[in-house]
Structures are given as C-alpha cells and as structure tokens.
Amino acid sequence: MVARQLDEQIVGRYPVGQRLRVLDVGMGQGTQALRLARAGHQVTGLERDATMVAAARKALSAEPEGIRERMRIIEGDGRDTGVHFLPGSFDVVLCHGVLMYVEEPDPLLAGLARMLAPGGLLSLLVRNADALAMRPGLAGDWAGALGAFDSTAYRNRLGLDVRADRLSTLTATLAGIGAPLQAWYGVRVFTDTAADEAGTPDDMEALLACEERAGRTDPYRGVAALLHLCGVRG
Which residues form the Methyltransferase type domain (predicted)? Predict the structure, then answer.
C-alpha cells in the first residue's frame, strides 16, 4: 500500500520519466530503496543497523549493474543527515517505520526537511496514536484498550516499548519545518489483526482493493494502524 501511495504522490508531482534523487532514511533491508532504484531513480539509503545494512548490500549485489550504479548505501543515523549531505540535495525523502523508535522526533524531522529541494516530497510512515486502542480492543484485551486511549506508548510485535504519533501533532510539526502536509493515508485499516495467510490471487487483489479504498476514505483511514503522511517543501 505504501508503495502505491508513494507512487501516486510522485506521479502527481513530477514529470513522467524524471530521474529523482531519493533519500531513504532508516531503509532497513532496502526494499523500498531498491524498488525506486529499479524504477530509474538515484537512491541513497541511510541505515544505522549493521545487520540491516549487510542485508541491503547483499540484495543490491544481486541486481544488474545499472541498478547497482543508481543506489548507494550509507551506514549512519538518520538524525545526522547534515553530516552526510548538503541541504536541498534530494527531491524525495522517505522515513518509513522510524519515528516510533525516536523519543524526540522533531529534530529528526527538521533535518529531513532541510534535505529536500524546493517542492520536494517528504514521506513518513508512523504508528497511529489515535488508533492505539484498536488492536487490543479487537483482540478482546479490554484493559489494554482502555489504557491505550490516552497514551502514545505501546509495545510492538517485536516486544519493544516504542511510541506512536498523532496526525494533528505531525501536521503542526510539518507546517513548522516548512514541509506542510499535502496528503495522508491510512495503512493496515482492515489487515492489522488479520491472520497472515497467502490466499488466492483473487483474494489478494480484493484485499488490496479494500485497503487502498479504506486508506484514502474517512472515517476508515483514521483508525488505521499506520499513517502515511506526505509533506511538500515550500
């Protein structure tokens, strides 16, 4: 879903065929970065976890030479983008699944915004603090659901104590750092608590169609497990 939503924003903002300069902060194993490199963009992945960096480099090594030349991987912290890059160096900056591990996200976000060229796109994927009660509630964990209503803290599926973000807070933050929110989507509206089963291709297409529709439609997107926010540098 995130890839579809991101492509929609890129296509709506840039001429078809334009090779973009992309920075993926906290790229993990490089799934999104590789996908964009395969699409013809010049991609830089920044990741501080050495295991993830090794996995991304291994995946990149299996790609054709043209794709390998379009992607570089840097081991480093997303809060130190100013150490590695000049302001305005990128057309698109991704920060997916990172903010939940950062206690004070505002300095990180301000640094990411500085990396964007004028008109550049900032793509964030965050845990939705306004829907933290949904997962325990649907699982019948009533005490957990009650505790989640007024909290931004939660324990993720890896057993780590992390934090979530509210749409209203991030909207204000993006405006304050000069990359105001232009579009937002819900991610994992129906599937957050669903069993991880392959199903038939037709089932998968129906699932994706439902998630795509719900992710852009109120009130469904507001209770999604994750939020995909897209800000644009002024």
Answer: 23-123
